Amino acid sequence: MKLSKRGEYGLRALQDLAVRYGAGSVSNKDLAERNNIPPRFLEQILLTLKHGQIVRSHKGPRGGYYLARPPQQITLAEVVRLLDGPLAPVSCVSATAYEPCGCPDMEACGLRRVMQQVRDVVAQMMEETTLGDLVAE
Amino acid sequence: MKLSKRGEYGLRALQDLAVRYGAGSVSNKDLAERNNIPPRFLEQILLTLKHGQIVRSHKGPRGGYYLARPPQQITLAEVVRLLDGPLAPVSCVSATAYEPCGCPDMEACGLRRVMQQVRDVVAQMMEETTLGDLVAE
DNA sequence: GATTAGTCCGACTGAAATTGTAGGAATTTG
DNA sequence: CAAATTCCTACAATTTCAGTCGGACTAATC
Predict the structure, then answer these.
(1) pTM surpassing 0.90?
(2) Which residues 6+ apart lie within 8 Å of B26 measured at CB?
(3) Is B68 on the interface with A (CB under 8 A)?
(4) How many domains does chain B have?
(5) Which domain holds residue B130?
(6) Tell me: the pLDDT tens digits for A8-33?
(7) Burial B34-69 (b: 16+ CB within 10 A, else e)
(8) Is the C-beta of residue B6 closer than 7 Å to nucleic acid chain C?
(9) Is the CB of B64 under 7 A from strand D?
(10) What is the CATH number of the domain that holds A119?
(11) What is the pLDDT of residues B104-134, one digit of tens each?
């Protein structure tokens, strides 16, 4: 049930970008230093975030990254799905990557019912929490 | 956020044992066949479940496995923690495997707050759901 | 227009976890 | 004793994870 380092680092970096939203771009180097993330690794992560339309960037000196949308419009679910894959604990209850499991009777499977509930509550929390919520006080 | 095959297979097998609780022991072979689990792999899983005091066994012909306690006294949390490790999405909010993360300010970390909530709600669901609940109708 | 700070991209690598398999010893039933 | 079963340890294939590296490209600044 654990998030990968990619996910963790990515979220930390985005939280940092959310704090600074509107104040220009932040370089990979700064993000890495402030958040204790291996810089070369973070570079890779930011690139996937860019391809996923979550951040934008510009190059050259004084270049860097910034959020592609206001923090209130970026949900944790979106980020985690991009960096870490589906939220569901088992694929037979996944909204985004459904696959049947090998249980004898799908309908009667109590396990599936409760895993579905777990997925639903986690998905709901992640979907209704935005980067904006993270940095609001 | 996904459960391992170990966890999934283990839970499926235990659900099966819960249905048959009180009616003697079930062999690894039967469990494997009924639940579509590689038998040799399941054997290994059942062994860890045994060491974790969740099942008992007896050997020889007509031997097999059975729950060590009534299904109502075995929680999903216990099983998942045994087979899959901590429930927390990040280790800085884990009850059973706490480790500090690298974020600049632990207290101010919004990410940590929401991850804590996710952990709490998942842990609560898993802790209050028993094998008995799985097979009740 | 050269320098320099930065992103962009793909390839690579080492270590660890995951998902099993295999062999054989021990035990119990019939 | 024969057969069925668990127990235990070791091994192996594959995949994933976490991170590194080299170098191309781009833009700002002096």
Answers:
(1) yes
(2) B16, B17, B20, B64, B65, B66
(3) no
(4) 1
(5) 5-136
(6) 999 999 999 999 999 999 999 999 99
(7) ebebeeeebeebbeebeeeebbebeeeeeebbbbbe
(8) yes
(9) yes
(10) 1.10.10.10
(11) 999 999 999 999 999 999 999 999 999 999 9
